[in-house]
Design a protein that fits this description.
Length: 650
């Protein structure tokens, strides 16, 4: 615990009352949070935010200023900002693709009979993928097919003379453009290595060539690494279907053992979800005075177990410290990505046990229990038992659980959308395409990304979504953005009645969906790419992804993964609005290339816009421009058909 009181943030830090309540409690308890550390960093380094500080070699570090327009080696602001940006892309691609690698290895172990309690949960998805990638299925069992598919997917990581096979998921015209631009990745790991090599001192100095290399590496995330992660998760754990649950800190139970899973790899969380229903463990909990075991999630692991098990979400990225501050969490189990080092200091003030389970992600202050797939269920049972044993140590006087929680509906995979729109026997995107062509839905918007203490937490996500659905734009979401809008009540069908425009409301009522669709964790942005591809394949909305009335946004993004995501959306031909700029504004040339000239190259581009209402204006303007180009904004004459006319149509 801090010996000096932290400086309290001025005013509310979030639109979420639960967050504001817990930040106030943290200040009273003298426990610093992310907002205190954010204030302590002011003023933030302008050279860093402009991207004009280079420390790639030890002649420097060099900073570009009006007096020193070149670094010691001769690199200018264009080269330095481009290289710094590319290193962020490389790290983001590495993080998402490593997620996919872990899951592909798990699939391989299951196929070899070494997967413990893990199994093939969606054989149909397995066989569809095998068929797409030309893996023989006739007369073969699921495990045999899974072994070949796992080998094939693991092969996508290493270098090949041919482009990644997973790029074939994209529309053919888009594939042809990538080939023409020479930005097809030929192996996920190879793409990351190439990018790091190109940004080494003394290699690639042409900012335009560098940026195109960044797009190439980013494609190895969205259309390869992330696509693999999503595919294998569906095969192993089941393809998500709509499920109801609750969200926010109010899901923590005062009378139960609360365990929080936090991170991004769903393997252990899957076993914890199964073990949390174990009758022997529940009896053990009752023996320690608890009414049961309550498993909840933070961040993207939360989205994974929500979609497949309906388990509640305690919050998004910036609520991880606050969950512990409730005093009601017996154990937090973490793995990789977005796990704050500060957690180890926060748990010292409470009884909470912090357990790190990844072999590549250690915290010196946390308990380290490396997860093994073959013994996954046994590991999960031991962790739950340890959390139950910790329950009597809870200080009831220090328990402060906010009352806020909200119902949500999640689990809208592409397969679910097919069935909901077309029925079980005629799965199709046709009704969605028709609704867009007729103008009842103006277009689609993807709102994704993290939460960030630089802005009022959740506000930009929610305000942007509200503005878009009010203007009859259907919103697709993943990650922490989805959690933010869930807390605001936008992820239930009833939200269409209260918040959506007239024609979007009609569509949502007819199908029974919310106006904001939860499509998964941040790695599941590949589902959004696939949804756009499905729209295109259904017909009537152009020939390439860049023709679609679709826009993307990341209003509160903060991670290198988000940088990679933004670039693979732009490389796919989509318009992307960021709530704050990339670290490139020290170079007018790089900024112009990304925000203006790129549209003439890939069909997509970036835009910076912090105001969510103005961002909605810009996204809708883009959508309407695409509708005009498609010729679907022409008002059609309504014609009443008599019986004779109907027979003639048939």
């Amino acid at each position: 615990m801090s010996t000096t009181p932290p400086k309290a943030p001025a005013g509310d830090v979030s639109r979420d009352p639960a967050i504001n309540q817990m930040v106030h409690i943290a200040g009273s308890a003298q426990v610093p949070t992310v907002w205190d550390r954010y204030q302590a960093q002011h003023p933030q380094c302008r050279f860093g935010s402009d991207g004009v500080c280079c420390r790639l070699c030890h002649m420097g570090p060099c900073r570009i200023t009006p007096k020193a327009r070149l670094g010691i080696c001769g690199a200018d602001a264009d080269t330095i900002t481009a290289r710094n940006l590319l290193r962020e892309i490389a790290a983001g691609v590495a993080a998402h693709s490593d997620h996919g690698r872990v899951l592909a290895r798990t699939l391989k172990r299951v196929a070899q009979g070494q997967g413990g309690e893990f199994k093939i949960s969606d054989g149909r998805r397995l066989r569809e993928a095998a068929h797409f990638f030309h893996i023989r299925t006739g007369g073969r069992g699921d495990l045999e097919i899974a072994g070949d598919l796992a080998d094939f997917l693991l092969g996508q990581f290493s270098w090949s003379e041919e482009p990644n096979a997973t790029l074939r998921i994209a529309p053919e015209k888009r594939q042809a453009l990538w080939k023409k631009l020479e930005i097809e990745p030929k192996g996920i790991d190879a793409a990351v290595v190439e990018l790091l090599h190109r940004t080494h001192m003394g290699v690639d100095h042409d900012y335009r060539h560098l940026i195109m290399g960044g797009l190439k590496c980013a494609l190895a995330d969205g259309w390869a690494g992330s696509a693999i992660a999503t595919l294998v998760s569906d095969i192993l754990f089941g393809t998500p279907r709509p499920v109801r649950s609750r969200v926010n800190l109010g899901v923590l139970a005062e009378d139960k053992v609360n365990i929080i899973v936090h991170g991004h790899e769903p393997t252990l969380a899957e076993m914890l979800a199964l073990a949390s229903r174990d009758e022997e463990l529940l009896a053990h909990a009752r023996g320690h005075g608890a009414a049961g075991v309550n498993l909840a999630g933070i961040c993207c692991t939360a989205n994974e177990v929500l979609m497949r098990h309906g388990l509640p979400i305690a919050g998004n990225f910036l609520q991880q410290e606050l969950a512990i501050l409730t005093g009601a969490v017996e154990m937090m189990v973490v793995d990789v990505q977005c796990v704050m080092p500060s957690l180890a200091q926060v748990v010292k003030c409470f009884h909470t046990r912090l357990v790190s389970t990844s072999e590549i992600a250690h915290n010196r202050e946390a308990e380290q229990i490396t997860f093994d797939v073959g013994n996954g269920y046994a590991h999960a049972c031991r962790l739950i038992r340890a959390a139950i044993d910790n329950f009597p140590r809870r200080d009831r006087q220090r328990v402060h659980i906010p009352c806020e929680s909200m119902e949500l509906v999640a689990g809208f995979s592409n397969e679910t959308i097919y069935h909901m729109l077309g029925g079980r026997y005629r799965s199709t995107f046709r009704p969605l395409n028709d609704a867009i062509i007729d103008g009842r839905i103006r277009g689609l918007a993807a709102i994704v990304g993290c939460s960030n203490p630089k802005v009022m937490v959740d506000n930009s996500h929610v305000r942007l979504a509200e503005e878009l659905i009010k203007r009859n734009v259907l919103v697709l979401q993943t990650g922490c953005a989805a959690i933010a809008c869930a807390k605001a009540g936008l992820l239930v069908p009833e939200a269409a009645l209260e918040k959506a425009g007239d024609t979007l409301r009609e569509v949502c009522e007819a199908v029974g969906i919310p106006p904001v669709l939860h499509m998964g964790s941040c790695v599941d942005n590949s589902r959004i790419l696939l949804a756009a591809t499905n729209l295109l394949h259904e017909g009537g909305l152009g020939e390439d992804l860049s023709d679609l009335p679709v826009a993307g946004a990341a209003p509160e993004w903060m991670s290198e993964k988000a940088v990679a995501i933004g670039h693979y959306f732009v490389a796919s031909g989509l318009y992307v609005v960021l709530g704050h700029p990339l670290y490139v504004e020290g170079s007018d040339n790089v900024t112009r290339l990304l925000c203006r000239e790129m549209e003439g190259i890939t069909g997509g581009r970036f835009e910076w816009e912090p105001d969510p209402v103005i961002a909605a204006d810009k996204m809708l303007e883009h959508i309407e421009r695409k509708r005009d180009a498609l010729g679907i904004n022409v008002k059609r004459e309504r014609k009443l058909f008599d019986m004779k006319a109907r027979r003639e149509l048939q």
